[in-house]
Automatic annotation (TrEMBL):
InterPro entries: HprK-rel_B, P-loop_NTPase. Keywords: Kinase, Transferase. It comes from the Bacteria. One of its GO terms (molecular function) is kinase activity. The keyword Transferase applies. The lineage of its organism: Bacteria, Pseudomonadati, Planctomycetota, Planctomycetia, Pirellulales. Transmembrane segments: none annotated. This is HprK-related kinase B.
Length: 380
């Protein structure tokens, strides 16, 4: 029997009873419907995506651009030979595996399996299904839903940046950094200041909005931070109980920095509903090229990415295994990012490099000063 997206979809949806409830997200001009066999999962997704939930949530599925089905079930073995998706430099361990579905000689879709959890994802033009222990791994379902919007943005010419984003006075700054550089920590520190707004945490898209302007678009993904960031910021400390605070504060700074334990920060709950914006004009990019072990003072300087192309490695990001271009061709793990679109967009903004030792307080003050004093529109 041919293994196509249709018969895989039929297998994954077999004997599934969907609940009558649904969730509809409005992301710019793109609408995503979500259906499930689990009310608990839908409730969790509605809460997580609260600021993007459509006004006609639950009643507007007919007008959605796509519908994601999230089926909570035991892991399913389809007896297929999956291929491991190669991790990015600096990342270790197996995370994703994929199997491409072929029908009449053309790629008909892709199955992606999360190696650790066993959650399966079917991605094709007609079918978008998450199947497996979805309630227990709702973060993976959230990422998959966001991938649908990310694909849409790339189809219209936007490029993906591995960066967080902050907005002050209608001006956005993207914050990128090499692994463990602290881009989320710096962004949250800046959110402590009145008048700032959250744009995005780890995935930021940029596209042209005029001959001299670039639009920055956020992905609705909550910041994930380590205990060191929570302990250091007054607004985040209530996320931990007293015992946790004492435990983390007693740890040596170096150990706290390396601790592999992440917490989601509910931006609206901590900072308020009016502190989230979906997009803004990008005026600046900061690349954190500092080091915790450096003995040099932290410094900020403007750079030209065409003269410092190595810094782009902190900014560029692979679209990942769920991405297929408009012709239906799926991304491969050996594809090289084309730097020219990034350079074209980033030629229109000021690019800054932070070097020396890590200094979040100085960085926050410097970034706020940059955003509050510069004109929004570049003229050269």
């Amino acid at each position: 029997m041919k293994i196509t997206s249709l018969n895989v979809a039929q297998t994954l949806m077999a004997d599934t009873e969907l609940v009558t409830d649904s969730v509809v997200l409005q992301l710019d001009d793109y609408r995503i419907g979500i259906r499930s066999n689990s009310t608990a999962l839908l409730d969790r997704l509605r809460a997580y995506f609260a600021y993007t939930v459509s006004a006609d949530d639950g009643d507007g599925l007919d007008s959605c651009d796509c519908t994601v089905y999230a089926i909570d079930a035991q892991p399913t073995d389809l007896d297929l030979s999956f291929t491991d998706w190669r991790r990015e430099p600096g990342k270790t361990g197996r995370k994703d595996a994929y199997f491409d579905l072929i029908d009449d000689g053309r790629c008909d879709g892709r199955l992606v399996r999360k190696v650790r959890t066993g959650v399966l994802f079917l991605q094709s033009e007609m079918h978008r299904i998450a199947h497996g222990p979805c309630v227990a791994n709702d973060n993976q379902v959230i990422n998959y839903i966001n991938c649908q919007y990310m694909n849409r943005l790339q189809h219209r010419g936007a490029v993906i940046c591995h960066a967080s984003g902050i907005v002050i006075d209608n001006r956005a700054m993207a914050i990128a950094g090499f692994s463990g550089g602290g881009k989320s920590s710096l962004m949250l520190r800046m959110l402590e200041s009145p008048g700032s707004a959250f744009l995005t945490n780890d995935r930021l898209f940029i596209e042209s909005s005029g001959p001299l302007e670039v639009r920055a678009i956020g992905i609705p993904k909550l910041p994930r931070v380590n205990p060191g960031t929570i302990v250091s910021l007054p607004s985040l400390r209530p996320m931990l109980d007293q015992q946790q605070l004492q435990e983390f504060e007693a740890m040596p700074t170096a150990d706290l920095w390396e601790l592999e334990k992440k917490f989601d920060v509910d931006v609206a709950d901590v900072y308020g509903d009016n502190r989230i914006v979906p997009q803004s004009t990008l005026t600046d990019l900061l690349i954190l090229n500092w080091k915790r072990t450096s003995d040099c003072d932290c410094q900020f300087r403007k750079v030209n990415l065409r003269q410092r192309p190595e810094l782009l490695n902190a900014v560029t990001k692979s679209p990942g295994p769920f991405y297929a271009d408009e012709a239906g061709k799926f991304q491969t793990d050996t594809a090289k990012e084309d730097h020219e679109p990034y350079l074209d967009y980033l030629d229109r903004v000021d690019v800054w490099e932070a070097t020396g030792k890590i200094d979040f307080e100085l960085a926050s003050e410097t970034c706020q000063s940059i955003l509050r004093t510069q004109p929004c529109l570049r003229t050269s």
